[in-house]
Design goal:
Helices cover 45% and strands 24% of the residues. By secondary structure, the protein is α+β, with helices and mostly antiparallel strands.
């Protein structure tokens, strides 16, 4: 460092003032006193220079100083690493000689401006020493020359440029979407520190808050969310942030201008940029009409279910009254037919109950099978005699009803003639999905065991016709009943990937 930078340091002033030179050393001893003063100055200068060097090495930023003739007088380690050259190769040399291609650059112009005016400046510019890099610089008058501290912000610049390009493309599309607000958040180490970098104009229509105001203060939108959704949003948002996964939620929000409470859906997805950092892309749109339509549909389905059950009850009542009119008893053939008819109506009603619980969107096969077997298991001391097992498979409504009626007919037959007729017998109900060249198929198996020896019937009853012909036709599949001596086996094979007739 130049000596002039140290000549008036506080340490030197203090040490000089503390030193008292006796009168005997003055006069003829004056020359000796000058030598002592010079030694003290050198000592103080060395101490201050050492302290300053420690500071400049520890600040983290690159730093160098130039004298009035643009020569390097000091270069800290960070600057040496950035330039890729040791200090001894640069000290004492003119900066513009080392970086000869700096002529006419913005960086040189700003350096010369600070040198001429004596006014410090902070600016960003493309590096001269390392092409393709961008620097954030602070240049200030220092010791008759310039002091320069800088940091490389190339990666941040590239991130911001990529964001600006992304935002420009996003804005061109998003600002013309009247019912969907699009936004972006810049990632951070902590979920609460994420900050918005873009919000589309639809923000004002959806929330009553201008996009510019929301961008400056996201709390304006947060305070519109109804309190019962805030905690859930925060917990799920933190989880999505930590796991870098999509965040999808529905919430109620009070419009800032109209005060109307409406349903919104918010989806936020992480996206990794080319430099490894993340940005979160999000959409928020009003789903109030969709929610109202869902509620209306639920009401209609419930009303339909109620009417179907009433219709089944009416049909059952008509059957009872019709049979009763002729004084038929349950022991007669027609009485048995009446009992079977009523049981089938109950089976159909129970299948409807399963679908009603699922809003007629489908049902799990395990629920269908257990509900169909329930009336038969309640009269057994050991309910495990009817074993139900299979993968968790969801079926469409038509298939659920058909299989429910088939299971009822098989249980009825087993109770009258087969494995459920004796206390030692039982039934295994199982199923699996099997892929083939045309798609996925459901293979359903009914297998009786431990009952009396099976004798094939001489005629085909209603239950067999229902399963082998009606069910197979309705489900575009096949159904086979085998009367094995050890017990009846029924295998139903139907496609799961094709429409039903």
């Amino acid at each position: 460092m130049p000596r002039s930078a140290l000549s008036s340091s506080p340490d030197q002033d203090r040490l000089s003032s503390d030193l008292v030179i006796p009168n005997s050393y003055k006069g003829s001893q004056g020359m000796r006193g000058d030598v002592i003063q010079h030694a003290i100055a050198q000592s103080v200068e060395a101490k201050v220079e050492a302290r300053l060097s420690v500071i400049l090495e520890g600040i983290g930023d690159a730093f160098y100083s130039l004298d009035g003739d643009w020569r390097f007088t000091y270069i800290n380690r960070a600057a040496q690493e950035y330039f890729g050259a040791p200090a001894q190769d640069m000290l004492g040399r003119v900066i513009w000689d080392i970086f000869s291609h700096s002529e006419g650059t913005e960086l040189r112009r700003r350096y010369e401006e600070v040198a001429a005016t004596g006014i410090a400046a902070m600016f960003e510019a493309e590096a001269v020493g390392v092409q393709g890099r961008f620097l954030e610089l602070r240049v200030f008058p220092y010791n008759g020359g310039l002091g320069v501290s800088f940091r490389d912000w190339t990666e941040r610049r590239r991130t911001e440029e990529e964001l600006r390009e992304s935002q420009a493309r996003l804005s061109a599309l998003a600002d013309n979407l009247p019912s969907c607000m699009v936004f972006q958040f810049l990632d951070s180490a902590e979920y609460k520190d994420r900050r918005p970098v873009y919000i589309s104009k639809a923000c004002e229509q959806l929330t009553g808050i201008r996009a510019e105001d929301a961008l400056a203060n996201m709390g304006l939108i947060a305070q519109l969310i109804l309190p019962e959704y805030l905690e859930q949003m925060h917990v799920r948002g933190m989880k999505a942030h930590d796991e870098r996964k999509t965040f999808d939620t529905e919430l109620k929000l009070r419009h800032a201008k109209t005060g109307e409470i409406r349903w919104h859906r918010m989806i936020t997805m992480p996206r990794q940029l080319s430099n490894g950092t993340y940005i979160w892309d999000g959409v928020q749109y009003d789903i109030t009409d969709h929610k109202r339509a869902e509620e209306h549909l639920r009401l209609m389905v419930n009303e339909l279910n109620h009417r179907v059950k009433n219709t089944l009850a009416t049909v059952q009542s008509l059957a009872v009254q019709s049979f009763h009119k002729f004084g038929i008893t349950a022991s007669d053939d027609i009485g048995a037919a009446r009992t079977a008819f009523e049981a089938r109506l109950f089976a159909l009603s129970r299948a409807h109950d399963v679908l009603t619980r699922e809003n007629w969107e489908g049902a799990y096969l395990s629920d269908v099978a257990l509900e169909a077997c329930a009336p038969f298991r309640t009269h057994m001391e050991d309910e495990s005699r009817i074993e139900v097992r299979g993968e968790d498979l969801r079926l469409p409504p038509a298939m659920s009803l058909s299989l429910s009626m088939a299971i009822h007919e098989l249980c009825t037959n087993a109770l009258k003639y087969g494995a459920l007729k004796t206390s030692a017998g039982g039934v295994r109900i199982s199923w699996a999905t099997v892929p083939n060249e045309t798609g996925t198929r459901l293979v359903f198996r009914w297998e009786e065991h431990g009952g009396p020896v099976v004798i094939p019937p001489r005629r085909t009853g209603f239950g067999s016709r229902l399963i082998q012909k009606g069910l197979a036709r309705e489900l575009n599949g096949s159904a086979e009943i085998a009367y094995e001596p050890t017990g009846v086996v029924c295998i139903i094979d139907v496609p799961l990937d094709v429409p039903f007739s």
